[in-house]
Amino acid sequence: MADNDKPIINPRDLALDHWSEGTFFESRDTSFGKRLGLKDLGVGYGEVPPGKSGCPFHNHHVEEELFIIIEGEGTYRFGTERYAVGPGDILGAPAGGPETAHHLINTGTVPLKYLSISTMAATEICEYPDSGKFDARTRTAAGERRFQFTGRPESAVDYWDGEPGI
């Protein structure tokens, strides 16, 4: 925990980062697990405007996620299904293949506010079924991103490609 931080945080006191990508992805959010002294558990808070999503449809191979809806209404796209969600709903996103792919879409008229909680694996692979991408990343023991690569299977190289003597 940072010197001035308590083991308690209220979302209304968080400084949020605002970002957007294209016409569908937008959020005001922040991560704050480290401020609570957590090393192996990621915690975040997000506010997604009406008609937007805070992330692409994706699945994790290692990490698990949990979302708690605080305010607003939305659709939880999970695998091939879509579920209406609202305040008090708790959403699970276990590790797996495309059958556990997920994202939240704000289908209401006010910002969709939620907590996100996830395991923090040292190494993770994510797939993005809508776009055919994958993402590989590693983290240091302190949770900082060490390596990240995003690509598509057709851009793969042979295991021995570029090695000396080959």
UniProtKB/TrEMBL annotation:
CDD domains xref list: cupin_SPO2919-like
Record keyword Repeat present: no
InterPro entries: Cupin_2, GPI/OXD, RmlC-like_jellyroll, RmlC_Cupin_sf
Keyword list, A-Z: Metal-binding
Highest taxon in the source lineage: Bacteria
Location of the Cupin type-2 domain: 47-117
GO function terms (MF aspect): metal ion binding
Keyword flag Metal-binding: yes
Protein name in the entry: Cupin domain-containing protein
